[in-house]
Amino acid sequence: AQSVAQPEDQVNVAEGNPLTVKCTYSVSGNPYLFWYVQYPNRGLQFLLKYITGDNLVKGSYGFEAEFNKSQTSFHLKKPSALVSDSALYFCAVRSFQKLVFGTGTRLLVSP
Amino acid sequence: GAVVSQHPSRVICKSGTSVKIECRSLDFQATTMFWYRQFPKQSLMLMATSNEGSKATYEQGVEKDKFLINHASLTLSTLTVTSAHPEDSSFYICSAIFDRANYGYTFGSGTRLTVV
Known about the structure:
The complex is a heterodimer of chains A (111) and B (116). In chain A, 0% of the residues lie in helices and 54% in strands. With 111 residues, chain A is mainly beta. In chain A, strands 2, 5, 6, 10, 11 and 12 form a six-stranded mixed sheet that branches. In chain A, strands 3-9-8-7 form a four-stranded antiparallel sheet, with no helix packed on it. Chain A starts with a strand and ends with a strand. Chain B has no helices and eleven strands. In chain B, a hairpin with a 4-residue loop joins strand 9 (90-99) and strand 10 (104-107). Chains A and B meet through strand 6 and strand 11 of A and strand 5, strand 9 and strand 10 of B.
């Protein structure tokens, strides 16, 4: 079965510093990977996806993710964190036509 | 573009009553919709996949008689929580495929259900 794992429940970073939110995947076949962000009591907003092509994927709001096949990872990154980036981040993998989500990582950016 | 409107955003109901949640695609035809449930501080659990004009496919462990899903048109899917109990209190989110060729998914803004 397709699955993703987010090993960190929470990531703390100071504003202006780079941030990384980790995701590893386990799939049979080619992985179709996604990152979403959720603000309190809201739905999910799409950040980026990897389907094929360049391993470095650029997405919304300055986020990017690096697909690493050898390490089966798809970590989300941003060069300079903003306080407004504080939210819940989900990694997901496409399984048949549905998305299977990781457990989520809460990002807290301190001023 | 690719907006899914979900209503209501928040609902409180009495134990034993039924509640209907609607998800409507505003600018595309949603042949496939998904319903997720999210517990506090937890991930999204897929409840069911609904395809327009056919019966929903429920995930293992989800009571189909309790969580009725109807997808009667290309723009509307509904989730009805029947005979709701406090343990059904949760955050429910719908999702739809808006671009099948490019794996485009969009999400509703969620419904906070509280059963008292």
